[in-house]
């Protein structure tokens, strides 16, 4: 059902006046994790400043170590919702468990399924029964075919509002956090009718590569990019080294705008 063979036109997902897909690129930005109302609201205002429409922020964080900050959970979703509403933004956040899906969806405009859960088939099927768009990230070691099958799990339950997100894959290369598989974008666009985003933060893990990676993503046909921005990255409870501060975000936005690539 996600195949181009069953639907030749691009899927376009509408959020009132903002859309994902359909030839305009969106930038989804915000902190790695929701840490407090003040931190999230500050990031939201910054995101709004550039005329963007989507605020990200993790409330359920899938951390590698169980001793690391796990996110604020439901409280985090409430904060994200409030901050997004106050700045007139749409809210995007990851859900890691079937049990939280329904409640979380009440607070979100886009339900994110993260790389570590790309093959959590129960979660995919339940997300397929939700009435909200799902942003599905590519698994750490997933092939493009496996990624497409995961999207198929969602659509097979009735939810066709799916956004794919390339976020880098694990290879032997250590110069970047993951290896951004840039050609996954045109392949996914060719094989499926779904919008495709690139997460430049988690794929590179390097702030000096965010601008070139975002330019490459858009030039190669992505429907947008995701990037992390935090009011004070040094104090961030997760991904402290890779989140942009506000002046870096300003630079990021101005370089992308100046590139003339954004439509
Ligand atoms: C995230 O976007 O917050 C995240 C954890 O990314 P990924 O699932 O791609 O690692
Ligand atoms: Mn992160």
UniProtKB/TrEMBL annotation:
Protein keywords: Coiled coil, Transferase
Gene Ontology molecular function: aldehyde-lyase activity; chorismate mutase activity; transferase activity
Source organism superkingdom: Bacteria
The protein, known as: Chorismate mutase
Gene Ontology terms describing biological process: aromatic amino acid family biosynthetic process; chorismate metabolic process
Positions spanned in the full protein: 95 to 357 of 363
Keyword Protein transport set for record: no
Organism: Fictibacillus aquaticus
């Amino acid at each position: 059902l996600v195949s181009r063979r069953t639907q030749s036109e691009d899927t376009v997902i509408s959020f009132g006046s903002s859309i994902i897909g359909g030839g305009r690129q969106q930038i989804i930005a915000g902190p790695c994790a929701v840490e407090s109302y003040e931190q999230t609201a500050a990031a939201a205002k910054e995101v709004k400043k550039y005329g963007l429409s989507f605020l990200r922020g993790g409330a359920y964080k899938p951390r590698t170590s169980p001793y690391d900050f796990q996110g604020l959970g439901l409280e985090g979703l409430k904060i994200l919702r409030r901050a997004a509403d106050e700045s007139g933004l749409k809210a995007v956040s990851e859900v890691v468990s079937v049990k939280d899906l329904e409640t979380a969806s009440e607070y979100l405009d886009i339900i994110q399924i993260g790389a570590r859960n790309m093959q959590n088939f129960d979660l995919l099927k339940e997300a397929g029964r939700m009435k909200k768009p799902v942003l599905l990230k590519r698994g750490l070691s997933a092939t493009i075919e496996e990624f497409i099958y995961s999207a198929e799990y969602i659509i097979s339950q009735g939810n066709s509002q799916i956004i794919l997100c390339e976020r880098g894959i694990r290879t032997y290369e250590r110069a970047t956090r993951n290896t951004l598989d840039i050609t996954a974008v045109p392949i996914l666009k060719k094989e499926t009718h779904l919008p495709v985003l690139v997460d430049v933060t988690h794929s590179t893990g390097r702030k000096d590569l965010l601008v070139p990676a975002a330019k490459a993503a858009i030039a190669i046909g992505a429907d947008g990019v995701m990037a992390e921005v935090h009011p004070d990255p040094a104090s961030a409870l997760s991904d402290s080294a890779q989140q942009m501060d506000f002046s870096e975000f300003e630079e990021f936005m101005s370089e992308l705008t100046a590139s003339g690539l954004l439509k």
